[in-house]
Each structure stands twice: as C-alpha cells, then as structure tokens.
Specification:
Blueprint lengths: L1 H15 L4 H9 L5 H8 L7 E3 L19 E8 L2 E8 L10 H17 L3 E7 L19 H12 L3 E10 L4 H4 L3 E5 L4 E3 L3 H8 L5 H5 L1 H6 L6 E3 L2 H13 L24 H4 L10 H6 L8 E2 L8 E8 L2 E8 L4 E6 L5 E6 L3 E2 L1 H16 L4 E7 L1 E2 L3 H5 L2 H13 L5 E10 H6 L9 E4 L4 E3 L3 H18 L6 H19 L1 H6 L5 E2 L5 H12 L16
Parallel strand pairs: 3-4, 4-5, 5-6, 5-7, 6-8, 11-15, 14-16, 15-17, 17-18, 17-19, 18-20
Antiparallel strand pairs: 1-2, 2-3, 9-10, 10-11, 12-13
Helix pairs in contact: 4-5, 13-15, 17-18
C-alpha cells in the first residue's frame, strides 16, 4: 500500500501546481489570488475543502499543453457555517479556458448542487471556450451551454447561486454570473463582456479598451449588470461570506444521526488487510469494521447470499446501509433434489444469485426506512456458467439493478479493488447517480480484468492478421500481447478513471469516513420528495 499512497501524494502535489509555479507567480504579480488560494480564504477556518475532480484531465490534451484538474477547482466547503459547492476557474491553466473536460467537470459541480440543494459559489476567471477544441465543447447537450440551463433550473429550485468575477469573463460565459442570484466583481482585474475589444474591433470597427467595455465601474455604475464592486480578491470574498451568513437555514431530509464515534478497531490496519495480489482472498467485513463507528455492524441475512455483505452501521454518526462484496471464499448451502442441502463453494468478489436476491431486498428495506446506502465494490462480475444461468442469475441480477437504480435515498460508492463489467453497474457505478463515487489507490475499473481482456483482444487481432495472410510467430504474438496488456492496464488505473470523471476522487482509505460524512451532510439538505417505486421487479 505505501508505494500507492506515495504515488497519490506525488500526483496530488503536482496537480495542485495547476499551470506551474511561473503562472502562479504571474497571478500574484497582477494582485490576484490563485483559484486554490481563493477557496482557502473563502472557507471557514479549521474546516476542510472536499475536492471533487482533482485528477480530471490528467494525461489528456498533451498536444495542447495539458489541462491539469480540467482548469477548474470544484468541491464542497463551509462558508459562514453553510456547506456550499464551490467552482473556481484556474487562470494558471490556459487562462482558465474551457476544454471539453472542463465543461464536464463544471456540470458535475452543478449536479452536486442540484441533487443536494446546496448553495453554489462561482469564482469566475476564464478566457472562455478553448477555441482549438470548440467543436467538442460548444453545441451538444452536455457541452458549455448546459451550464446556463442549469443556472436557470437551480434558480427555479430556489438554490442560491453567488458569482464573483475575479478575472476575465467572456462571450457565452458572461451569462453564468449574470444568471446567478448575486453578481460581484473585483476592480482592475475583473471584466465581463459578450465580445472582447479585439472582437468588437473586428466586428463593428469600434476601438474600446477592456475596462470601458466591461470593467467594474461600467457594470456597477452604468449598465447595472453587476451588483457591487470590490477593490481586491479578499474584500470580494469577504462579501460572499456575508451573503452566506445572512442566508436562511435549509430544510433537511431528516436522516438519522447521533454523536460520532471512531471505529473501535484501528483504521490504519486496512493497509495490511488488503493483499497486494488482487486475486488473493480477504475478508471485506474486516475492512468495514475499521470504517464504521464503534466497529458496530448489524448484518442483514448474514448466512444467506454470503458473496455480498449487507448490514446497518453508522459513519461519523450517520446511519447507513452498507452493500459490499465479500472477497473471501464462502460456503453456501443449496437445495438438493430429494431433500436436504448441498454445500457450494462461492468465489470471493463474484455476485451469485442468492446474494443479488438478498441485496435487492436490503436496498428496498433501506428505502423503506430512509437510510442512505454505501456500496463498497471489489467485484469481478456476476457468476457465469450453465448452473448459474439455470438458477436464473440474469433474473436475480436484474432485480438488484432495478432496486438500486430506483432507490431514492442517497447512494455513495467506494471502489476498494476491482470494478468490472456488470458488477460495476449492479453496485451503483457512475451511471446510477451516486451522490459521490471515490476510488482507493487499489481500484481498477473496466469491462473485465487486464489479463482476460488482453487475451481476448490478442485472439481478435491475431485472427485479423492471419486473415490478411500475415504469418505470426510465437515471438510476435508475445510482443503483441505485451503491447495490448500495457495499454489496457493503463486504462484500468484509478487515475485514468478520475481523469475522465468516472470517479470523483482517488483517496487514501483513511479519508473514506470524511468523504462519506460530508456527502451525507450535503445529502441531508435535500428532502426526499420522490416515492420509491421499483416498477415490475423480477421474481
């Protein structure tokens, strides 16, 4: 585990630099704070910022100089005692320009605000769409324009939006702060206009400087577009704090919470409980016991469907229902013709029919009792083979997916190890709207494991080459296998998943409790109004 944690620390430090130290120094020379410095100043002292999407964009757009963290910092933080979503453009990365992944990350932040009815604060400092990639960020449903649609929907929902223009705010991006409830601007550095001086000159021949065209004084004194102006970043951020300080208390969902308690067992032992060899079995219950309050777990049907652990616990005082893969081999009793029971050995990390049946019922019970769900994935998929098919594994899997997908209580997903194929779906993968989805450094996500996929892809490629009349030697075949394996393994990485925002964060296992607790506090801001209904369920 230690090398994996060291890699997480190294990648985190590198990503925090954004566009690099020189660009950070340039921001300071202009009298501006960086995006992360603005967030640190804005949030309450002695509180943490729960970042979402730190590794977004990692390894992407190399031909364009890269886009660390997607050029925007997003997450949850407390401002004047209120939990808020914060979105801060990072002007050290291509002047805060919007890459395709930037749009996806901004929309994710707005989704968090919508799902949890949290105030959202925009710290705007962006040059607008990155023009060389405009065809990938402009016109489609989930492109740039979706943000303004979300602005309108958030407003209609009664969710507070506060925008501070702390640098450039150009073209279509100008609508974001002006569609917010409150719009503030920093004198000297903030500017907002539909078309900048160069475009105005090219379009209508008018010579005008940026300050006259869209500076703080013009928009607060003449156009009335902006509510108020402030001399520097700090005073503008102070104004946001005052706005939040006077905002009324939210409604709550009423999820159960008691005084938090640490686990009775040492969480650091998780590092030694997870085997280095991901094929090796281990006891997931031992991991759970080191994450929950007082290590106190109430199991649900512990002797039935043992390849999935289901039960009730508390995390930082919040009541949760946990659904987790059991990674050790278990003995399951199966009915025998003529009476009695036979013992079947079930492999760890595989979802069997009885486990899917149990988990579906457990999820329905949690919805009945208004208990949020936490899924812990280390799954290789559903059981296959004639015996499983005859036992109705598809039917049982469909039942689990139905109950999980229609669940109305908040869902949180933690990828501990493997997250392969339909197992990812059934245990609340990204497509099933978890309020938060995080991966441990030990995580892998793909349709199937690297070894299985590489061998399958090799067979396809070899057959294709032979069909073209090419001769493949054993050495050529081995070299091709290695190339395929290396490429596939790179895509299995949790950082690859985080770069594409398939997960919200890659975290140290010891940060799991904090992430779950903050997410549940956020979720408690959104009363459940939709009835739980699974429709036609397979029986």
């Amino acid at each position: 585990m230690q090398p994996l944690l060291d890699e997480l620390t190294r990648r985190t430090a590198q990503t925090y630099l954004g566009g690099g130290q020189k660009k950070i120094d340039d921001q300071h020379k202009k009298g501006k704070l960086t995006a992360r410095e603005r967030i640190t100043y804005l949030i309450d002292e002695a509180t943490d910022f729960l970042e979402i999407g730190l590794f977004v964009g990692e390894g992407m757009y190399a031909e364009h100089g890269g886009c660390p963290s997607g050029g925007v910092v997003t997450g949850l933080g407390y401002v004047s005692g209120r939990l808020c979503v914060i979105v801060a453009n990072d002007a050290t990365v291509k002047a805060g320009a919007w890459f395709p992944i930037t749009a996806k990350k901004n929309l994710r932040a707005q989704e968090v605000a919508m799902e949890n009815r949290l105030p959202i604060i925009y710290l705007v400092d962006s040059a607008g769409v990155y023009l060389p990639l405009q065809n990938e960020v402009f016109a489609d449903k989930d492109h740039f324009g979706r943000m303004f649609r979300n602005n309108a929907h958030l407003s209609a929902m009664g969710v507070l939006q506060v925008a501070a223009i702390m640098g450039s705010c150009v073209a279509g991006g100008a609508y974001l702060p002006i569609m917010s409830d409150e719009a503030l601007i920093v004198e000297g550095t903030g500017s907002i206009f539909l078309a900048g001086p160069y475009l105005v000159k090219a379009s209508i021949g008018e010579d005008v400087d940026a300050e006259t065209l869209g500076g703080a004084a013009m928009h607060t004194e003449i156009s009335g577009v902006i509510d108020n102006k402030y001399p520097d970043d700090q005073s503008c951020l102070d104004a946001i704090k005052r706005i939040l300080d006077k905002t009324g208390a939210p409604e709550t969902a009423g999820f159960s919470r008691v005084a938090p308690a640490p686990p009775a067992l040492d969480p650091a032992e998780i590092y030694t409980l997870l085997p280095q060899d991901r094929v090796k079995p281990y006891d997931m219950q031992a991991i759970i016991d080191r994450l929950i309050d007082n290590s106190d777990f109430d199991p649900y049907k512990p002797d039935y469907g043992q390849s999935l652990i289901c039960g009730y616990a508390r995390i930082d005082g919040w009541a949760v229902g946990i659904v987790a893969n059991q990674r050790k081999v278990v003995k399951a009793k199966q009915p025998r013709s003529g009476g009695g029971a036979a013992v079947e050995m079930q492999m760890g990390g595989v979802i069997y029919g009885d486990a899917a049946d149990k988990a579906a019922r457990f999820i329905m019970n949690c919805n009945q009792k208004k208990i949020p769900l936490v899924f812990m994935q280390d799954v290789t998929g559903f059981m296959v083979g004639s015996r499983a098919e005859q036992g109705g594994i598809i039917k049982d899997g469909a039942k689990l997916v139905n109950a999980m997908a229609n669940s109305v209580v908040p869902k949180i997903t933690i990828i501990v190890g493997n997250s392969y194929g339909a197992g990812n779906y059934a245990l609340c993968g990204r497509a099933y709207d978890p309020r938060l989805m995080v991966a441990w450094p030990t995580a892998q996500m793909a349709v199937m494991s690297g070894a299985s996929a590489a061998k399958t892809l090799l067979q396809i490629q070899v057959a294709s080459l032979k069909a073209k009349g090419e001769t493949i030697t054993p050495e050529d075949e081995q070299a091709l296998l290695q190339k395929i394996t290396d490429q596939y393994n790179a895509q299995l990485s949790p950082y690859y998943a985080a770069a594409h925002l398939w997960v919200d964060a890659v975290i140290d296992p010891l940060d799991t409790r904090r992430h779950v607790a903050t997410t549940l506090e956020a979720a408690n801001h959104a009363p459940i109004t939709k009835p739980f209904n699974v429709g036609v369920i397979q029986t």
